[in-house]
Amino acid sequence: MMPPDAAEMHERPLIDIRNLSFRRGSRLIFDDISLTIPRGKITGIMGPSGTGKTTLLKLIGGQLRPDRGEVWVDGQNVHALSRSALFALRQRMGMLFQHGALLTDLSVFENVAFPLREHTRLPESMIRDLVLMKLNAVGLRGARDLQTAELSGGMARRVAFARALALDPMLVMFDEPFTGQDPITLGVLVRLIRDLNAALNLTSMVVSHDVAETLSIADHLYVLAEGRVIASGTPQEIQAESSPWVRQFMQGLADGPVPFQYPAATLQDDFCLSMTHSGARERST
Amino acid sequence: MMRHVLNVLARLGRGVLDALARMGRWFVFMLGLLPALPASLLRPRLIVDQIYQVGVLSLQIILVAGAFVGMVLGLQGYSILATYGSAESLGVVVALSLVRELGPVLTALLFAGRAGSALTAELGLMKSTEQLAGMEMMAVDPLKRVVAPRFWAGVVAMPLLAALFSLVGVLGGFAIGVGLLGVDSGSYWSQIQSQVDFREDIINGIIKSVVFGVVAVWIALFEGYDCLPTAEGVSRATTRTVVNTSLAVLGLDFIMTALMFNV
Questions:
Q1: Would you place residue A182 in the very low, low, confident or very high pLDDT band (cuts 50, 70, 90)?
Q2: Which residues of chain A make contact with B138, given a CB cutoff of 8 A?
Q3: pLDDT higher for A48 or A33?
Q4: Whole-number pLDDT of residue A122
């Protein structure tokens, strides 16, 4: 039986975001949002483009600093940590950037070996075995000698996934993993995220605006819009949500609370008045 | 009219604010890089790789340019010296011009065009493709892993390239002066041996090239690290690297020449 404090720790969410506000220039990206990411689950963060989903990942990783509020990861306040403590925490977090962010001067093998070489003093034979195991997990053991320029978009994301797993992290954050992928690659990525999360006892956080794929793998979902959490719950609960915001997003409606037209002057101002002006000009000439 | 004046003032204010912000970022970059420099010396392999990139790959342009500059000095020097009947001093004219001035300065300008622009573009692209952000998320400090080895490589490579530039230039002057124009070979070399002072000329030339190396590589790395992560941002940063390095090198050369040679 686990000691009480360890059991309590295990029950506590891995990520706890409390009253977070973040501003970029004059634009308010997050307005006092709070959310939690439970351990061992896949949590989806959805919302239209530009709602700050990627920004949220960067705030969790400590790459950005909030204007207000706190981000707690595994019991540590990310923005109160020293640089070395933050780097120690990051070694336990993997992140997949939208385009992989693979190091273009290194081969596939060396990309996956990169965190191991930087943070461990393992012998070369062990690094080789570990890298091949990670690459095997994403189905790319045979691609070890390819250069990153030779990879398709989907392969690059799988290599980035293998690299994120290199140090056996507790958390993997996926930034738009499904964007721009063909159906086969989509299926592969969905399966990989689901299977590896279960097999490696990870906690996964998937930021995406691909509704179907995210619904199919997430245990829990948050929907963000206009700097706030507008809905949260299981995929079934989100689908049953009646809020017009959520319905517009989930059903992909062109117009709704997120308007089709970018804010502009009224049609009357733009067309009727300009006709009046041009008529006046013609008369004066 | 009033609106026009206000617009000019606003633009001026924006320019001053941008310049101050840039200085601030430069200072932050310096504060981040300085502590990373000693630590990166513990990984000489990374520095050697970069010396190949910025040094060895610049050899071609440096050697060819050095040879042509030496040959032009041979032609010009001979035509002037012959007027005064002292064509035998051609060696010393060529050698001093190269070792004191042209070697360090032209090498730095060529270095900015060849290696500096490449460093800026490389770092800029790493930034725009999120490679630097990715490294940070892997708990690897890009200043330590990427920037510092490139800095050391530039500082090591610049004086060596300048020395090779001067060497090839002296040989180029020899080929033209002795081979083509009939200057005595013994005079060419003996004049160099007797007139070129190790401390006064060669050491000062080396000091210049080290300073230019630091300046060139620092500007290149800062511009790459600081650029906007877009195609236009990288292209502008690359241009700024070449322009700013050239101006800084020429300005510093004037100051150092005044200080070193007591003119």
A1: confident
A2: 90-91, 114-115, 118, 163
A3: A33
A4: 92
User: Which residues of chain B are modeled with pLDDT < 70?
Assistant: 262-263
Q: B159-203, pLDDT tens digit by residue?
A: 999 999 999 999 999 999 999 998 899 999 999 999 888 888 999
Judge: B130–A97 Cβ closer than 8 Å, yes or no: yes
Is the alpha carbon torsion for B220, B225, B231, B236 positive or negative? Answer: negative
Encode burial over B202-240: b for 16+ CB neighbours within 10 A, e otherwise. Answer: bebbbebbbbbbebbbbbbbbbbbbbeeeeeebebbbeb
Token reading at B33: 């890089």
The closest of A220, A101, A91 to A157, measured between CA atoms, is A101
Q: Which of A194, A243, A193, A253 is nearest to A223 (CA)?
A: A243
**Cα distance between residue A72 and residue B113, in whole Å:** 47
The candidate with the shortest Cα–Cα distance to A41, out of A229, A237, A220, is A220
- Which region holds residue A19: left if phi is over 0, alpha if psi is between -120 and 50, else beta? left
Count H helices, E strands: chain B?
A: 12, 0
CA geometry: angle at A159 spanning A157 and A163, to 5°? 115
Q: What is the ipTM of this complex?
A: 0.80
Q: Please answer yes or no on whether A98 and B130 come within 8 Å at the CB atom.
A: yes
Q: What is the DSSP pairing of strand A228-233 with strand A220-225?
A: antiparallel
pLDDT in tens, A76-123: 999 999 989 999 999 999 999 888 889 998 999 999 999 999 999 999
CB burial string A27-60: b at 16+ within 10 A, e below = ebbbeebebbbebebbbbbbbeeebbbbbbbbbb
* B49 and chain A in contact, CB less than 8 A: no
Shortest alpha-carbon distance between residue B215 and chain A (Å): 26
- Residue B71 identity: M
Tokens 């981000």 locate to: A71
Instruction: For residue B197, give Cα distances in angstroms to B97, B173, B204.
Output: 13, 19, 10
* A2: confidence class by pLDDT, cuts 50, 70, 90: very low
DSSP string, B127-162: HHTTHHHHHHHTT--HIIIIIHHHHHHHHHHHHHHH
Strand A203-208 relative to strand A42-46: parallel, antiparallel, unpaired?
parallel
| Structural element, H or E, at residue B40 | helix B2-40
The residues near A212 (Cβ < 8 Å, ≥ 6 apart) are: none
What was the pLDDT predicted at A5? 60
Question: Looking at the complex, does the CB of residue B129 fall below 8 Å from at least one CB of chain A?
Answer: yes
H/E run at residue B123: helix B117-128
- At residue A209, the 3 state secondary structure works out as coil
Q: What angle do CA A190, A193, A195 make, to 5 degrees?
A: 100
Is residue A251 predicted with pLDDT exceeding 80?
A: no
Instruction: Return d(Cα A30, Cα A23) in angstroms, integer.
Output: 7
